Structure formats: structure tokens, C-alpha cells
Amino acid sequence: MIARLSRLALVLLMPFALASCVLTPGKFVSTLRIDADRHFTFTYVGEVVALDIGDDMMKGLGDTPAEDATDPASGDGTATLQQLAFQDKADGKADDSKDAASKKAAADAKNRTIAATLAKETGYRKVTYLGDGKFSIDYAISGTLDHSFLWPYNVDAEIMFPFIAVELRANNTVRIKAPAFANENSKSSSMGMPGMDKASSQLDGVFTLDTNAEIVSQNNEDGAVTTGGRKTIIWKATPLTKDAPSAVLRLAAAK
Fold first, then answer.
1. DSSP for 111-169?
2. Integer angstrom CA distances of residue 197 from 126, 185, 191, 236
3. How far apart are CA 32 and CA 164, in angstroms?
4. Half-sphere exposure of residue 212, counting CA atoms within 13 Å on the CB side?
5. CB 23, CB 48: distance < 8 Å
6. Dmax over Cα atoms in the chain, in whole Å?
7. Which neighbouring-strand residues pair with 188?
8. Partners of 199 in the beta sheet?
9. What does the DSSP assignment read for 51-116?
10. What is the pTM of this model?
């Protein structure tokens, strides 16, 4: 029953996954500077890996156990929703090997288009597609926190699942969380979405928060280091990292 519900959830997620580009961090160095006066600068330099979530979902759902061939609840031998959604895949299984090269070519073409699209967005100082779903990115942006901030997010490239979210709250605080900089992304955040475990195995980076604002809370057990009135918190991101970097800062009242 649980397995059937999991497959049903993935079927319902398919249109979203197929329409979106899921990017995950590889080897990187990232910094977020937030000043008490609400000025901020965010940088990310390193690798980004594009995932074909739709293809991984198809693979994960393609092999259905014999006992799930029909839905017992129906009582009439009708096919399950999972089977109906993926019957075309079963019909074309014999052609998988022939399609591998064309799928790779199509994926590379799509990723080159994504690179070109991102390069048009403010903040991207360099975007290079390296092949095999991997990009080299140099990104930096500065501004004032008068609204929340997400990265990466691009409507034209249909990029979802941001690496970092900076949420401005009504009580002069700002909440920061970087879900992609930890392996929890393949569990709670992605609801066990196929492909995310493979992506997290490439996670190798350092994320630094630098601020002169009051730190209300943070989840790094080493705490903050204070130097010259500024506080720095450094998180290491690896495949073994379970807790995404998070912190809450108190800012000066908005003018």
C-alpha cells in the first residue's frame, strides 16, 4: 500500500518535474553577507549539476511488481493509475538503448540553452556548460533586503528548487535557509524524488554567512566567530551533511 501511494505521489509530480529544471550544487564556494542596514551580497562560484528528474522518475516507476499489476481495490482487474501513466514506457522498452544517444544529445542541447538563458540574467558573471549535465557558474548580486530573495530561480529556464532562500519577516528579522547545501534535500524537501541521492553525492562546498546584525538563532554547532564587529558562520556541505544551513538575523527597522 505504501509503495503504491509513493508511486502515485510521483505520478502527480511528473508534470511539474518534466516542465522544470532541477539544479543541484557540486563543488562550490558561496557567501552571503547581510548588514544590519539590510544591504546584502550573495555569491556562488563553482559547479552546478542539472538533473533529469523526469527520466529518473520513469526509471523508478517502470518496473512494477506482479502483485501490483491490477488494483485490488477496484475488484475488476483494471490497471492502476501508475500503469496507465507509464504504459507508453513499457511499450518502448526495447528501444531504450537506441534512444540513449539521442536523449543525451537532447539533454546537452537543453543544458546549453539553459546556460545561455542564465547568462542573460543579472548576477551571472560567467555560465559555462561543461557537458554531462554539469555547469560552471560565477554568480554575484547585491541589493537591499526590502523583499525575499531566492536563488537560483529563472522563469525562462523553468528552474525550481532554489539553493538558498532569504525570507524577510514582519518583525525586522530575516530567515535564511540553504536546503540544497545538505543531504536533507533528497529526503524531506524532495519527498524522496528519484535522482536526488545521486546529486547529493556530488555535494562538496563551503557556505559562509557574514553579518553585523544580531544573530537570533543558527544551527551550526561551532557557532559564530566575531572579528571587528562582524560575525561569521561557516557551514561545510558534503554528502554526509544532514542539516541545511539556517539562521535568523535581526535587522534595523526599515526606514
1. HHHHHHHHHTSTTEEEEEEEETTEEEEEEEEEEE-SS-EEES-BTTTTEES-SEEEEE-
2. 27, 8, 11, 18
3. 10
4. 11
5. yes
6. 74
7. none
8. none
9. E-HHHHHHHHHH---GGGSS-TTTSS-PPPHHHHHHHHHHHTGGGHHHHHHHHHHHHHHHHHHHHH
10. 0.75
Q: Which amino acid is at 200?
A: S
pLDDT values of the chain reduced to their tens digit, one per residue, 255 residues? 444 434 444 444 444 444 457 889 999 999 999 999 999 999 999 999 998 665 554 454 444 444 444 444 445 555 554 554 455 555 555 566 668 888 889 999 999 999 999 999 999 999 999 999 999 999 999 999 999 999 998 777 667 678 999 999 989 999 999 999 998 745 444 444 555 566 668 899 999 999 999 999 999 999 999 999 999 999 999 999 999 999 999 999 887
Q: How far apart are the C-alpha atoms of 3 and 14, rounded to whole Å?
A: 17
Residue type, 125: R
Beta partners for 32?
Answer: 42, 209
C-alpha to C-alpha distance for 166 and 185, rounded to whole angstroms: 17
- Name, in order, each residue with C-beta under 8 angstroms of 142's C-beta and a sequence gap of 6 or more: 39, 40, 41, 42
